[in-house]
Each structure stands twice: as C-alpha cells, then as structure tokens.
Amino acid sequence: MALLRVEDIRKKFGKNEVLKGISFSLEKGEVLAIIGSSGSGKTTLLRCLNFLETPEQGRIFVGDEELFDGEANEKMSDEQIRVKRLHFGLVFQNFNLFPQYNILQNVTLAPSLLKIDTPQNIEAHARELIEKVGLTEKAAQYPCELSGGQQQRVAIARALAMRPDILCFDEPTSALDPELTGEVLKAIKGLKSGDSTMIVVTHEMEFAKNVADRVIFMADGVIEEEGTPADVFDHPKSEKTRAFLQNSLENF
User: What is the pairing mode between strands 57-62 and 31-35?
Assistant: First the structure.
C-alpha cells in the first residue's frame, strides 16, 4: 500500500481554478520532486496536503487512514486539523524560525508543547537532528547569528522533530544566495533513506534529476508529466515539459 495517496484534488481561489484534479501516490522512502513554472499550482498542492488550504474536491490518504474527503463537506475543527497535520512536516521558503529562541529551543518547541515524548527524549532527539544537519556547535545560538543556509537547515531539523510520515519542502533554496543553496540541498540529500519520505517542490533541476526517485511536472494546475528523472528529463513526452526544461537550462 502506498504511504500517500492523493485523488482528484481541486482548489479554487475565487474563479481561479489553481488545482484541476491532481492525483498521485507516494511509496514509503521515496523522494518526489515537483517542478513547474510559477503559478502552476505546486505550492498550493503542498498547502492542501498540509491543511493550510482546504480543497473543494478530492481525497487524501496516509496509509489506510483517510485524512480528507471533499465529498463529505464536513468542516474540520482546529483540533482535527492539528492532528492531521502531524502526518506532514513542512519546510517553508523563508525559514520562519522563532527569533527569540535559540536553535535547540526552536527544534524542541513544538514537540514540547504537544508533549509527544518526555522532555529528556525530546531534547536528545533534537540534538541528534541538529547534528544530522551539521549544526551541533550552533545549538545555543539564535537565528540572527546564523546564515540563511544554516537557518534553513535548522528549519529542516525542526520539521523532523515532529517525526512526520512525509516531509515536504516548498522551494527550500529560493530565498538563499547561490553559494548557500548547495549546503541546504546537501542536507536534504543526506536525509534520503528508506525511512525518509519526501516531497520537494524545487526549481533546482539538477537536484531533482539526481536525488528524486520520481518527478512530477505541473503546468496550469494539472500534472502534465510524471515519471522517473530519466523519463521526465531525458525523454519528455509533453511539449510543455520540453519547453519548460529548455527554458530552465537556458536560465541556469
């Protein structure tokens, strides 16, 4: 059984239909890269998965649990949404760290508030994650003392601290200078294992080609093309895919 199943997700903002029936599945341990031009619906899709937006239609399953059914028309309570969000971790473009807390506190805050484990275990796990992203010596420092790349790595550790089933990245390097992009992509690549299931919305074509197990190319609110990196990058079937990739390479 797939870890994640998304069926016919549709989302409108006013009369603008941003997602026009998105369906895909994701196996445990897979890395899915989602590419496409601005306005294609990539970020809206992630926001729907993380219950930051509510689709008008469709279904979302994690394992055998149905998290969302657009046909039910049931308004979820804030508590229900919080519980469903625990399946997903989301790393934003702009870090969104709490400036008043040091790095260790940023990583332990949410697990501590939700009491998902003992304080000792939460701190021990946080320190392991901080080490995993290469910031052990920065644990007592504050976000303002770190580079953008280091802050994004803290954001990754913070998302992992909640032990999500699926870790989602929304253009994790778009707010970074080119020289800092590599360190964040290296940290994400280091998470790739049989235990880490990831969805990465990215404009980094080399990263998508070399790290992802599968690639989805979105255009105009639909999945225009889907397949292995070799399928999508080396043998694209869609003219829209070919045009996007050619343009991306020209701007690289």
Answer: unpaired
From CA 144, how far away is CA 99, in angstroms rounded?
7
Residue 75 has, within 13 A of its CA and on its CB side, a CA count of 2
Name the nearest CA neighbour of 23 among 176, 222, 168, 251: 222
Whether this prediction's pTM lies above 0.85 is answered by yes
Q: Does residue 63 register a pLDDT over 80?
A: yes
DSSP 60: E
Please name which of 107, 82, 62 lies closest in space to residue 199, comparing C-alpha atoms.
Answer: 62
Amino acid at 206: E
Alpha helices in the chain (DSSP H): 42-49, 78-85, 103-114, 119-132, 148-160, 178-190, 205-211, 229, 239-251
Residue 61 has pLDDT above 60, yes or no: yes
- Residue bearing tokens 């934003």: 92
